[in-house]
Amino acid sequence: MVRYVYAFTEGSRDMADLLGGKGANLAEMTRLGLPVPPGFTVTTEACRTFLTTGGEPAGLAREISDHLTVLERAAGRRLGQPDDPLLLSVRSGARFSMPGMMETILDIGLNDDSVLGLAKSSGSERFAWDSYRRLLQMFGSTVMGVDSALFENAMARLKEDCGAVDDLGLDAADLAGLVETYKELIRQETGESFPQSPARQLQRAVLAVFQSWNVERARLYRRREHIPDGLGTAVNVQTMVFGNLGPDSGSGVAFTRDPATGRAGVYGDYLANAQGEDVVAGIRNTMPLEELGRLNPEAFSRLCGHMATLEAHYRDLCDIEFTVERGRLWMLQTRVGKRTAEAAFTIAAELTDEGLITADEGLVRVSGDELARLTFPRFDTSTIGDPLAHGIPASPGAAVGAAVFDSAEAVRRAAAGEKVVLVREETTPDDLPGMVAAQAVLTSRGGKTSHAAVVARGMGKVCVCGAEKIGVDPQGRRFTVGDITVEEGTVLSVDGSEGAVYPGAAPLVDSAVMRYFETGERSDGLVDAVARAMQHADGVRRLGVRANADTPEDAARARRFGAEGIGLCRTEHMFLGDRRRLVEAMILARTDTERERALDALLPLQRQDFTGILEAMDGLPVTIRLLDPPLHEFLPDRTELAVRLAAAEAHGSPPSEHDAELLDAVNRMHEENPMLGLRGVRLGLVAPGLVAMQVRAIAEATVERRRAGGDPRAEIMVPLIDTVEELRLVRQEVEQVLADVSEESGVSVVCPVGTMIELPRAALTAGRIAEEAQFFSFGTNDLTQTTWGFSRDDVEAAFFSAYLDKGIFKVSPFETIDRDGVGRLMEIAVAEGRAARPGLKTGVCGEHGGDPESVHFFHAAGLDYVSCSPFRVPVARLEAGRAAL
Ligand code: ADP
Ligand code: MG
Ligand code: MG
User: Which residues belong to any copy of the PEP-utilising enzyme C-terminal domain (predicted)?
Assistant: First the structure.
């Protein structure tokens, strides 16, 4: 026989799956001997059965009534007993806390008779009628489905009629009248009377709490918090205690330390002569918890004692709900409390110092997401007004700047020392210079993995994307929101953590944690706590952390942030800007000599880039990827060119020969699916001289650094391999160039040659590929794209939100690695690669390298390192440490 009900005296904190968080913790407090009003918990399993069958689980009623009998015996009163009623609360409580999402019904057991008994036994008529009207209100809305606003309106009208400022201004007669109004309201709205039978009230309340699991707001909350829909809620049935019995009663919430800063010392709010729901509802102003010490020193000192007990027992910050009934303290709830990022680090350090937890446990209690939050400057939220628009918080932080509407303008103004916000419908690689120049990027289209979002996150730049309410007009150099128009140059404040845009310059608060990563300066207790967590993580992690960096500046920053090398140096960024002309010349070359001349012109520039990066990363590995994107990405846009030529023709001027040639090339090279076209290793194999030029630049840079007394450690990485044959051919060319340069210079240049694993075929034939590859680096962006068959640039806007809504996946596979599919391919590749080449080095260089959850998977999969953007390096270090515990 399944058992559906447990008394508080039977449960414990590790039964949260079955009893829900609230029930498990009520049981734990009971076991600790704290004053908890007695009660019992109906299990989540009963709820699941109810939700799947639609009916009350067999035997549940019986179990509830048995447990009720035990409560009644102990109390010496029966539920709803007319002369002296036992009253109950019926409280929801799921495995994971879902604050305010589901329902609680207080004062079960009151009816037209027992309300009179309660008045007599308590000695307060006002209290009895107040309790009855609360029951009608909660039961009426939660169980019987009456719109709760109707009750609130009736109450407000009554207060107005009586001239009462708040609910304390209503006397017993007023409240008795209100009870009649409420009963009538229920009858009108439902065609049914409020059930007078206490047993029936209890039964219906329990089922209503089950049902509240599936109300719309609870579903939405679960989706946002990634809580599975199938868990169900437990129901706690508990003896009522009363905070509304007069001035020596009251209710409050408390924390064992400050949940905002983490600093030690009790912290909370108290409301005299009130039930707990009033504290959070904000119907009257609460007083700070210390006031309770003045009003009732004994209850206050007991409370402080219980809080100390709880913190020592849970070994963590606890939050608490309590009620004082005529001077006597009752504990109604506790749990390990939610906290800010700042508090998380501070508490972990302090509890470690106090010896309550180990350094390992301290590390587990902080997270990479929290760390990231601490590194961004923030707006001082106390002083900003309403936002102009909302979008998706794509890349956190706070930035202020003048609105500009194209990349060139952003660059121009930034060069003149102005701070700008680049506003676009969406961004493309052409906007890159403007994005670099801007403080923040704001787009009206695209999701969390749109170009703007990904690039901005990579650069640690603030970004709000998909702000659909704004209409961007790049020609007119303005955007509109409703009837507001924002012209170019207007100052905006962009909050990438909240996804909001404000007019004007909101004041910023700097991040001391960021300063610590930049300079090592430990300016306050929080920074010290962060530094300690980082040190511990570095001490325990097995996974190396490298950075994706394409410039000496990024490389130097990554190094300051603790990167142990570069895992991905993209060479395509080196083909942009002024060098475009040279790249064009190479593409348009008609003869070998023309092509060689173009490549020769590019060589010294590339060499210079590599020299700078190798210098910044001296002594550490720098993995350089050979050119990856299709060549036509470096040519002008097809339509743009055609328009330019047509315009010239219309004006009667001769068409530019260069433009005509370009258009010809663009047309010739056009691909329907460039991401699956002529790119990566394929390009290297068909564009003569390209690989040789890049490898020569790397080799000569190595020689230069060596001669300067440095320790350059370049590694050459070949992108988009499908088969070992491709790698074999490229590698021959690479080795030849390395040998040539060694001979010419007299300096022996040896660079490991490895490959990206970013196509399913490569992963599945990794054993063969490892014969030629000296290392693997998983390009998880492309691997995700090709494994799922998702075009990263298209799927987001097209249907990802629908897929998330339908629960097809809980998080975009471009954000967090898909363990089952993409992850499986990686595991196969690691195993077969290492079997073929023992000790084969494996790393990850996709966006996932800086994603906390993915880092844990990479650790478990046995990779050697992750590589991520410089700004994510501390996050990856921290998570790699946590993963190792
Ligand atoms: P939530 O999960 O939304 O916090 P609770 O189950 O904690 O809901 O109930 C809300 C409030 O109802 C509590 O904060 C408490 O003040 C009050 N309450 C619940 N059970 C009792 C009880 N047995 N006696 C007195 N007040 C109670
Ligand atoms: Mg509560
Ligand atoms: Mg790739």
Answer: 533-881
pLDDT band at 804 (very low <50, low <70, confident <90, very high): confident
Give the separation between CA 867 and CA 655, rounded to whole angstroms: 47
pLDDT reading at 282 higher than 60: no
DSSP string, 43-97: -HHHHHHHHHHSSPPTTHHHHHHHHHHHHHHHHTS-BT-SSS-B-EEEEEEESS-
What does 752-775 look like in DSSP terms, one character per residue? -EEEEE-SHHHHHTHHHHHHH-SE
Beta partners for 333? 321
Nearest CA to ligand 1 atom 9: 104
Q: Can you list the pairs that 831-839 forms with residues at least 24 positions away whose Cβ atoms lie under 8 Å?
A: 832/766, 832/767, 832/770, 833/766, 833/767, 833/769, 833/770, 833/773, 833/776, 834/770, 835/767, 836/766, 836/767, 836/768, 836/770, 836/771, 837/770, 837/771, 837/773, 837/774
- Strand partners for 237: 40, 90
Q: Looking at this predicted complex, what is its ipTM?
A: 0.94
451 is catalytic: yes
pLDDT for 489 equals 96
Helices (H), 754-861: 760-764, 766-772, 780-788, 792-795, 801-805, 824-836, 852-860
Unique residue bearing structure tokens 């209409």:
471
Listed residue (511, 516, 531, 627) closest to 579, CA to CA? 627
Does residue 41 have its Cβ closer than 6 Å to ligand 1?
A: no
The structure tokens 């490298």 sit at 546
Spatial contact of 443 and 467, defined as CB atoms under 8 Å apart: yes
Task: Point out the ligand nearest to the CA of residue 332.
Answer: 1
Question: Does ligand 1 have an atom closer than 6 angstroms to the CB of 228?
Answer: no
Give the closest residue (by CA) to ligand 1 atom 18.
276
Q: Which residues contact 734 (CB under 8 A, 6 or more apart)?
A: 691, 695, 716, 751, 753
Task: Give pLDDT, residue 701.
Answer: 98
Q: In the block, which residue shows the tokens 């709900």?
A: 321
> What domains are there in the chain, each with its CATH number?
67-239 (1.20.80.30), 250-336 (3.30.470.20), 377-510 (3.50.30.10), 541-630+671-883 (3.20.20.60)
Strands 462-465, 440-443: pairing kind? parallel
Instruction: Tell me the DSSP string of 535-555.
Output: HHHHHH--SEEEEE-SSHHHH
- Taken as a whole, the chain contains a residue count of 885
Nearest CA to ligand 1 atom 22: 240
The yes-or-no answer on residue 845 being catalytic is: yes
Residue with the two structure tokens 């904000």: 282
Averaged pLDDT for residues 469-487: 94
Tokens of 134: 């609360």
Cβ–ligand 1 contact at 97 (below 6 Å): no
Reported confidence tier of residue 224, pLDDT bands at 50, 70, 90: low
For ligand 1, mutation pick of 101, 130, 253, 277 (most atoms within 8 Å of CB): 277
Of 406, 447, 431, 167, the residue nearest 282 (C-alpha): 167
Q: 440 CA distance to ligand 3 centroid (A)?
A: 26
> Tokens standing for 624?
């350089």
